[in-house]
């Protein structure tokens, strides 16, 4: 099947009655200038051991080093804007062709693009909380302390250490994961965009879909079970072409 035929098939899948969802990973945001984590040859986790840099035990053991790494990752998001893929997914939801977006990303770009129903299964950087008393804070409280030289940032109520509301390695999954799992019950179509489908339990979500389409630069463990696999570097181009076929460009 040619690329053009795959795009037309995907458009036809989206038009069928039923609940359609998108499931996105880091590859959907690379065109926005945000580095990928697992791509061969360029992924962050090829250079850094995530258990030593981005785990709950790393935060507890060496909090200052954890925050030095985490804030470096956060700075890579600074100034990032949604790209064509983010905007297309938001438009598909607006047109009732998608029921929502489930994302592994913590960059907030789906919301910035206008998506209304977003399940951030690995958390986000809008808030933080105290590790000891669980008092919640806006993320800027943590950020302002770090920038003023307080590393690790501290809770004003009990003096405990603050942590970002992202799912670290060794963390339990957050509430959004279970909401997404429930939402996918009876899912007709799941479009996976820019995910290696290697990080569990999030990578188990495709098993809930009746039909699976994968848009990713590299092969995934789920390719053999997908109705369509579109291996393209630029997800934005795939969705630009899809929107044109749907008459939504």
Write up this protein.
The chain is an alpha/beta fold and 249 residues long. The chain folds into 2 domains: 1-34 and 82-122 and 173-249, Rossmann fold (3-Layer(aba) Sandwich), CATH 3.40.50.1220; 39-79 and 125-166, SIR2/SIRT2 'Small Domain' (2-Layer Sandwich). It has helices spanning 3-15, 50-53, 56-61, 63-77, 84-94, 109-113, 139-147, 175-183, 235-246, and strands at residues 19-24, 100-103, 118-120, 123-130, 136-138, 162-166, 187-193, 211-215, 228-230. A 6-stranded parallel β-sheet has the order 3-2-1-7-8-9, with helices on both faces. Strand 2 (100-103), helix 6 (109-113) and strand 3 form a beta-alpha-beta unit. The protein is elongated. The protein starts with a helix and ends with a helix. The mean pLDDT is 93.
Query: What's the end-to-end separation, in Å?
Result: 24 Å
How confident overall, as mean pLDDT? 93
Task: Determine and state the CATH class of the largest domain.
Answer: Alpha Beta
Please give the number of β-strands.
9
Protein name: protein acetyllysine N-acetyltransferase
Enzyme class: transferase
Domain Deacetylase sirtuin-type: 1-249
Keywords: Hydrolase, Metal-binding, NAD, Transferase, Zinc
Task: Spell out the blueprint of helices and strands.
Elements: H1 3-15, E1 19-24, H2 50-53, H3 56-61, H4 63-77, H5 84-94, E2 100-103, H6 109-113, E3 118-120, E4 123-130, E5 136-138, H7 139-147, E6 162-166, H8 175-183, E7 187-193, E8 211-215, E9 228-230, H9 235-246
Parallel strand pairs: 1-2, 1-7, 2-3, 7-8, 8-9
Antiparallel strand pairs: 4-5, 4-6
Helix pairs in contact: 1-9, 5-9
